């Protein structure tokens, strides 16, 4: 896996979610682990695109437009879903196909409203254990200002093979 993943326009028609995974910036080396659900329907709806993909750092973007609440600002639930997506994917990378991450705790603090453009989330590990992981996710606006900080803890369940 490349530490600084840059999406390439490659296609593999053998994978049932090839178009979706390529569109969302998931490196082909990860595709074998995503044959049942791809990136999931919520990632599609929120338009999350991965921009960096490694066990030590995941990054992704999400547009504010289409993910707003009644006052026209970024919905806190959308921010939480972005954070959980990155934290769970990072836990899955740590499990390296031997375990399934299950979120047991997610908290998020909203510092500033996301009003327009694109938000960027950066996920880094706090703890990488054999049975659990903890990741911090920082979400920033186009100006680089922090708009939210999240932390997720995942339990790693053995895969049923």
Automatic annotation (TrEMBL):
SUPFAM superfamilies reported for this sequence: Thioesterase/thiol ester dehydrase-isomerase
InterPro entries: HotDog_dom_sf (IPR029069), PAAI_dom (IPR003736), Thioestr_dom (IPR006683)
Keywords noted in UniProt: Hydrolase
Gene3D superfamilies according to UniProt: Hotdog Thioesterase
Thioesterase domain location: 71-146
Family: Belongs to the thioesterase PaaI family.
Name of the molecule in the record: Hotdog fold thioesterase
Protein species of origin: Glutamicibacter halophytocola
């Amino acid at each position: 896996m490349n530490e600084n993943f840059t999406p390439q326009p490659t296609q593999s028609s053998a994978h049932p979610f090839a178009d979706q995974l390529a569109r969302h910036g998931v490196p082909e080396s990860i595709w074998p682990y995503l044959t049942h659900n791809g990136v999931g329907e919520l990632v599609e709806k929120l338009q999350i695109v991965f921009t960096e993909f490694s066990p030590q750092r995941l990054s992704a973007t999400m547009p504010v437009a289409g993910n707003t609440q009644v006052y026209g600002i970024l919905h806190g639930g959308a921010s939480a879903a972005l954070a959980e997506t990155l934290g769970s994917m990072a836990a899955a990378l740590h499990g390296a196909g031997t375990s399934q991450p299950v979120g047991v705790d997610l908290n998020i603090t909203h510092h500033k409203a996301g009003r327009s453009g694109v938000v960027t989330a950066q996920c880094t590990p706090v703890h990488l254990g054999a049975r659990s992981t903890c990741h911090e996710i920082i979400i920033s606006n186009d100006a680089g200002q922090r708009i939210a900080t999240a932390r997720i803890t995942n339990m790693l369940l053995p895969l049923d093979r």
